[in-house]
Automatic annotation (TrEMBL):
Species for this entry: bioreactor metagenome
Record Pfam families: HAD_2 (PF13419)
UniProt keyword terms in alphabetical order: Hydrolase
Stored SUPFAM superfamilies: HAD-like
Protein name: Phosphoglycolate phosphatase
Length: 234
């Protein structure tokens, strides 16, 4: 019997407002640049170097530490891209726009109604490779109330692929792995979830019908109820 549903966040429930996780809503306004400036190879190389730093910091416990992390990220990005007007004010503005701006994410239109409906019959949770400010965004968007557990990778210094986050989530829900469905847009994360004992579901938010998977595929949370009914019949 399925008792819980765990969701990834990024590209499952929400996407970056600009289409890029680190190009914030006011990024180009702050820098006085244009969108096409972020598409040149030199900028992409600078972004890769800045991300390598972020990826090297495994533990980020709270938004204070997250702010420090992304302050260094944008410092590296601007220096490596040879931005001429670099200053502390600009770096702080970019960092604030990343960490403190709730509008950095757009939620899919099915999220609010389906979370409300699903939470009436299932224990819901988030398991996401992300940073602490995500939870604040969910709180301010009135979505956090639907979840009984909210596990973020940086708080624990672990990724979904390592399965510790799954263990923490089901323990907080008080259920067994085989009583939980996990929904993610990444096949590799679903493999890890299956190895842990959960029931995987792949979500394709971009309606890419060329995608093949050994797991059930949904393209909207509205399709989830039928998939759940199928699991219950087995």
């Amino acid at each position: 019997m399925i008792k819980g549903i765990l969701f990834d966040s990024g590209r499952t429930l929400n996407v970056p407002a600009t289409g890029h996780w680190f190009i914030t809503p006011n990024f180009h306004k702050i820098l006085g640049t244009k969108e096409e400036d972020a598409e040149v190879p030199s900028f992409e190389v600078a972004m890769d170097k800045a991300y390598a730093y972020v990826d090297s910091v495994k533990v980020v416990k709270d938004e204070i530490e997250e702010y420090a992390l992304f302050k260094e990220f944008y410092t590296i990005l601007l220096k490596e891209s040879n931005y001429e007007k670099i200053s502390e004010d600009i770096i702080h503005s970019l960092t604030k726009d990343n960490v403190q701006n709730d509008e950095k994410f757009l939620f899919f239109e099915d999220v609010e109604p389906m979370l409300k409906k699903l939470s009436e019959n299932y224990l819901l949770g988030i398991v996401s490779d992300t940073w602490p400010s995500l939870e604040r965004v969910f709180i301010n968007k009135n979505l956090r109330e639907h979840f009984k557990t909210f596990i973020m990778s940086s708080v624990y210094g672990s990724y979904k692929s390592e399965k510790l986050l799954f263990k923490l989530a089901v323990e907080e829900l008080g259920i067994s792995p085989n009583e939980a469905v996990f929904i993610d847009d990444s096949e590799s994360n679903l493999v890890a979830a299956e190895e842990f004992g959960m029931i995987p579901v792949l979500i394709d938010r971009y309606e890419d019908y060329s995608i093949k998977s050994k797991y059930p595929i949904i393209r909207s949370l509205y399709e989830l109820e039928e998939v759940l009914k199928g699991f219950e019949k087995k």
